[in-house]
Here is the input.
Amino acid sequence: MRKRDEAQFIEFAAGAARGLRRTAYLMCGDWQRAEDAVQDALIRVYVAWPRLRQRQSLRAYATKTVVSVVMDQAKRPWRREHASADPLDAVDERRDHPCAVGDRLFVVQALSALPPRQRACVVLRYLEDMSVEETAEAMGTSSGTVKSQTARGLESMRAALGGIGSTLDLG
Here is the structure.
């Protein structure tokens, strides 16, 4: 890779890593697995960097790669361990208002109960604010599948959240 391309990649990776890590965490429920997924995804982006022509879609490509890595991780039997049960592990930002942290913990717990594809759809659609089409592209599936998986995931989350589900915006 040329020095100029490498410098552009470093700049891109530095700017995108935090958001990619958040997406990966919401999909897998574990910060260490999220870090691993982002590292693996950025390695794939680095390898593909010279042939990526549309620089404006780099973030979408990186997000799609993170989704792919996390979904691949979920398929591996040795990666099916449960996320930490300690609720403090789920809090990345320590400066949040206590009520917001509590609500976030309930949402993270409800997300962790979803199957991987439903979880990915809910995370990408509602927490990453992607359209149905963008989510379908990121997951390598059809728009219809995204719609049905999202509907099932939201239904399960509403049931899991019970009383607080009505106060949270889940779409």
